[in-house]
Amino acid sequence: MPNTVRPGAFTSRRAPGSRRSGGAGLSVDQRGLRNRWGLLLMITLLVLVVGRLAVLQGVDGAAYANAAEQDRLRTYPIAALRGAVLDRDGNPFAYTVAASRVVADPTVVTHPARTARALATLLDVPEPELTKKLSQDNRYVVLAAQVSPETTDAIDELELPGISFEDDPVRLYPAGTVGGQVTGFVGRDGAGLAGIEQTFDEELAGTDGHRRVEVGSGGNPIPSGIDESTPATDGDTVTLTLDQDLQYVTEQRLGEACQDGATTRASAVVLDVHTGSVVAMGSCPGYDPGKYSTTDPALLGNPVVSDVFEPGSVMKGVTLSAAIEEGVAKPDTVLSVNGHIDAGDRVVTDAHDHDPIDWTVTGILAKSSNVGAIMLAREVGNEKLEHYLRAFGLGKTTGIELPGESAGILQDSADWTGSRAANVPIGQGVSVTTLQMASIYQTIANGGVRIEPRIVKSLTAPGGRVTKAPDPASARVISKATADQMAYMLEAVVGPKGTAPLGQIEGFRVAGKTGTAQRANPECNCYEGGGYVTTFVGFAPADDPQYVVAVDLERPTSSAEGGQVAAPVFADIMRYALTADGVVPSGTPRPDFVLEGP
Amino acid sequence: MTSRATARVTAPSTRTSTFRTSTSRTSTPRTSTPRTGTPRVTARSTRSATRSTPRPELRLVPGGTAARPRRLPTAALRHRRAPYVLLVVALLIGTTLGLLVLNTAIAVDSLKATQLRVANAERAEEVQRLEQQVVSGSTPAEIARAASAAGLVPAGPAAYLVVGPDGESVLRGTPAPAGGDAEGGD
Fold this sequence. Notes:
The structure holds two protein chains of two kinds.
Chain A: H1 28-59, H2 61-72, E1 73-78, E2 85-86, E3 92-97, E4 100-104, H3 112-123, H4 127-134, E5 141-147, H5 149-158, E6 163-167, E7 170-172, H6 180-183, H7 195-199, H8 201-205, E8 209-214, E9 227-230, E10 237-240, H9 244-258, E11 265-272, E12 278-284, H10 303-306, H11 316-325, E13 334-337, E14 340-343, E15 346-349, E16 357-360, H12 361-366, H13 370-380, H14 382-391, H15 418-423, H16 434-445, E17 449-451, E18 456-460, E19 466-468, E20 474-476, H17 480-493, E21 511-518, E22 532-540, E23 547-555, H18 562-581
Parallel strand pairs in A: 2-10
Antiparallel strand pairs in A: 1-8, 2-3, 3-7, 4-5, 4-6, 8-9, 10-18, 11-12, 11-23, 13-16, 14-15, 17-20, 18-19, 21-22, 22-23
Helix pairs in contact in A: 1-2, 3-4, 3-5, 9-18, 11-13, 11-14, 11-17
Chain B: H1 2-13, H2 17-32, H3 39-52, H4 61-67, H5 75-137, H6 140-149, E1 160-163, E2 169-172
Antiparallel strand pairs in B: 1-2
């Protein structure tokens, strides 16, 4: 019992003898004040703690949870495999295999020099370059791209810190230059930059996927954790109508032609007569799509569809078709053909000037008389000739599934001058691509029905579903009778008295037409010094046509004619096409042609 | 200590009420200060006191009645609780072990899956490598090279025997031996 307490101050309800309160010496007001401050302090602390909790949990909670999850989640990209490009029998022109990109995090690499030394030989990258890359103040450095799985396994075994791998599929072109111009190539980013790779880039590419996995501290997936993946959708496979073997033979033969010392460029295309599909297409010099980056950029095209030239006498096939279809002449119609003819401000001559000769229309074609063709064209008329030229597909693209196709050049007949009107029927003053030239003769060989040339047979989805390419447009250009008469006359060209006996193939009847056109000199935009473009287009067997082969050789320094240089190339390609396809030799002999009038 | 107290209290209760009263008197302060005494003792003595002479100060009894359930944790009762406790413990242990086994199984499976995935990837690599070998070996250029190395030469024109509807066969084309000199090969 405290006896020092001032009287009246003691108001404690506490029982005597109980523990003394610490505030025993304070007045009621003082203690009330202290209690209030204490309470305020406690409340403030509580509010702070609860508030912080609310902020952490309620406001930032989602972000923190997300950050924590992100810390545990690893997202691995799954690269979609680009679809293959195949020939008609499934042989690959282009396909993709899995490979890796070797990347480094220089902040984690402990010994840049030692790591570089270990990787230099494996990656085939100079050691100083690797050392420089590994010493960068950066967290992501690509050391090498498109590294084979064997190499990545070897690197993996070295257990180098800071080195990792990413999917980086590699595009292979096993056939090399064979079909290279058709297939095209893909750039470093995997986008198609030429040929089929460019046209069908979207279909071939597919869609990349990814896998998200929750991992533990060791980087191993947590068994019951998040493991969701969006699978990659591989690209479609494009099947072409090309035959890889014939393509190889064609390119080999063109390659030989380019070695003759005068030919600077040689192109050829083989069409299936009944479907219009391209069976082979190539040029020399070609290129290997796998080495496009080290190839002269000027060569990275497909001249068969993009380069135009004046076709020369092969155009007489159109002129004479128009003449027969219009009833102007028949194969045995006899014309007195002079060696030269006035054409506006010029004089057009035959290959060799001569006195008037009585030639049949067959003879005009077999001897490739310019004068005779111009005489017939004048009978047909410019407007009608233009109609036939356009109906045979000149002056517009064929619509083949290849990029960079040229439409060629064909002026409106209303704009033709006198000399132009005389030049067009003999294939000068009009430009075509090799493919357009082949398409003209496909029309004649197919009984007068032109089918637009196509090179893609089908698309195959990763699941195996095959989508056939749409049927190409076809249209009748000349009657069956006209086409048959044309086939008959074209056979005379390859006959012993024609311009191209070298185009013959033993056992088969061959129909075709030579062409030797002046080549425009790109330096002066004139014909001087331009040399010649020699051509040969034909089909076989003449009695039951299966294939059309068109060949053109650019020979700036030679005056040799198509029958001499282009026809043998044609014959070699056609011979292989017929033999390999098992086409039975012709059962009937070549008819006797009447070339001159009585 | 509790049982000893009980015995001490109950033994004299059968003899005299006076003694009993004194006993109850001595027990009264104990009851008022529950910290020092046991309620059980109080209950006993109170009941016996009520039986003989009802006394007002013994109204503390209700506390005694309330305390009656406290007699439960006897040996018998402990026996009745034991299975429950055991069950809970067993469940706990069972669950823990089950979880452990499950987790281990999952972890093992996950490990196995990872291993299989690696093995799968290796197989895929192998397949890819072999396919590449086949493809590069079957390109036209490679076949042409291998063929000429084996002494083969390009075929000449082929001739065909065409069988007509009447059964007569006609030779189409002229068969000719392949040209070129066979080199190499065996």
